[in-house]
Structure formats: C-alpha cells, structure tokens
Amino acid sequence: MITSVFKKSTPINYTLLVIFVLFSFLLYRFHSATSLNSLTEWSKMSGMLVLTFAALFISNFIAKKNGLTRNSGYVILFFFLLTLFSPSIYNNYNIVLSNFFILLAMRRLVSLQTLKAPKEKIFDASLWIFVASLFHFWAINYILLVYISIIFHVSRDYRNWLLPFVALFAISILFAFYSVLYDSSAINHYLSQATIDLKLDYFSNNYQNIALSIFVTFSVYFVFSSIFSIPNKPLNLQASYKKIIFGFLIGISIYVLSTNKSNDLLLFTFLPLSIMATNSIEYSNNKIMQEVILALFIIAGVFCYVTQL
C-alpha cells in the first residue's frame, strides 16, 4: 500500500513531498526558539528552505540520471524521512551549506562512469569539496572519494591525480583574497576547525540518543544489504554503487571526527543512505518486507521528529 504510492515518480508524489517538507520545516522553525524578528532572519530561513529543496532534488537527479535507482519517488522520500531524525538540521546553516556543495561534488563523481570529460568532472568535484570544507572542515574527507573515483575509472592518466591539487590551489588563492579584503581572521578560524573529537557525549536529551540508535540500526541494514547486492547489479554500474557506499562511510567519518558533534552531522550520509534504502525496496521480491521496512522507517522518522520539537 505505502510502497505503491511512491513506486513511480509522478507530480502527485512530488507535490506530497513538497507539502511534507514545508510542514516539517515551518513547524520546527516556528516551534524552536529561533527569533524571526528581522528581515535577516527571514532571509536566512528562506535560504535554508531553498537549500533543503535543492538537496532533495539534486539527490533525486543523481540517482536517476546515473541509473542508480528506478523511476520511483523513494530517494526523495527517504531523504526527507532522514531529516526527521534530526530536525535541528533546519537551524544549522553551515552543515546544510557544506552538504549542498558535497552533493554537487557527488553529482560529478558518480557521472564519471560515462567517461565523458573526466578531467572537468574531477576538477569540479574537487573544487566543490574544498568549498564545502570552508563551511565544515572535515567535509574535506570527501577528497578521498575523488581518488577512489579516479582509481575506478581513469587511473592511467597521471594528470587526473594532480587535478585535486590544482583545485586546492585555486580555492586557497580565492580564500586568501577574501581573508585579506573582508575577514582577516577567516584563515585562523578555518584552521582552528582542524581538530578531532571522538567523544559521543553531546546528547542534550534521551530522544537524540534514541534517534541516533535508530539511524544506526537502519544504516547497518541498508549498507550490508547494498554490499551483498553489488554482484547482482549491472557490471557498468557496480563502480558507482561502490562509490555510494564509500560516500556513506566518508560521511560517517565526518561525524566521528568532528568537534561540536550533533546528529546534524549525519546529513552528509543522507544521499548515499537514501539510494541504498531505495535499492532495498526496489529490488526486493518480498512485497510484505517492502511495506514493513518503509512503514517502520516512516514511524521512526515521525517519532524522532515529534519528540525533538
């Protein structure tokens, strides 16, 4: 029943999801203590809403354009449900911005499977990753995915291995100019983020702990399901599915290494996890299992959202 609603991408599906996102976003923002007494705050809220929709539709584009999922609405659905696990994401501008640029990088890296303009894609992806790190330093870990993609597709040309350094040089020059002209403390602030904190004692209430536990449970299931299903996927897409799994693991590394931890940091894992969850639904021959998994995911998401309002 539930799976049949999102089995195909239709205008109705997208309309429903837009309504769900708007409702959850506005309810949380107006319920939170965030002040909206100025034009600046309203502008920030509008910008956050635009970025939220952009993340949803870029994720959907990446999955469908590269043949990683079928023509369904599950990717956007799962991405939205994952935001319910940590609704405070809606207040975390830096994490949302950083993830937005990571999504742009992932779009280029996944499309490397076509072998069209690989140098441009490697440079663009590296550039977006370094930009993402300006908003959250440990997003720089995704540069590993650039080299993993090079190994999978274009490792024979030594110039491809040097392109991330060219992108780093370009961003460094631009960032240095910005620091000199507008904010002399920007470089020191950026470097100060390069610290590691492995502690997991940040929970301000038990419901955040419960949300993380539920997230981990679903993640373990979907990741192992994806790993074991790779040999059954089309040969030309297996490297892309592997990149999705590596992307998830790199997202987890950002969460583990970052200081000022919160469940918001799990946002970096939402794209790969949404694709893996979608695959588990689309390729399952057990209709009852499909319904159970999706129903449990919806119930868990709504529970986590309501308890953290």
Shape: globular
Q: How much helix, percentage-wise, in residues?
A: over 70%
Structural class: mainly alpha
Number of helices, where a helix is a run of at least 4 consecutive DSSP H or I residues? 13
Total strand count, please? 0
N-to-C SSE string, H for helix and E for strand: HHHHHHHHHHHHH
The rounded Rg comes to 19 Å
Sequence stretches where pLDDT stays below 50 over 5 or more residues: none
| Strand content bin | under 5%
Mean pLDDT: 92
Question: What is the makeup of the main sheet?
Answer: none
Q: What is the terminal-to-terminal distance?
A: 29 Å
Can you describe what's shown?
Helix 2 runs antiparallel to helix 3 and helix 4 runs parallel beside helix 13. The protein is mainly α.
Fold topology:
Blueprint: H1 2-5, H2 11-31, H3 39-65, H4 74-85, H5 93-110, H6 118-135, H7 143-153, H8 158-181, H9 186-192, H10 206-229, H11 238-257, H12 270-282, H13 287-307
Helix pairs in contact: 2-3, 2-4, 3-4, 3-5, 4-12, 4-13, 5-6, 6-8, 7-11, 10-12, 10-13, 11-12
Summarize the structure.
The protein has helices at 2-5, 11-31, 39-65, 74-85, 93-110, 118-135, 143-153, 158-181, 186-192, 206-229, 238-257, 270-282, 287-307.
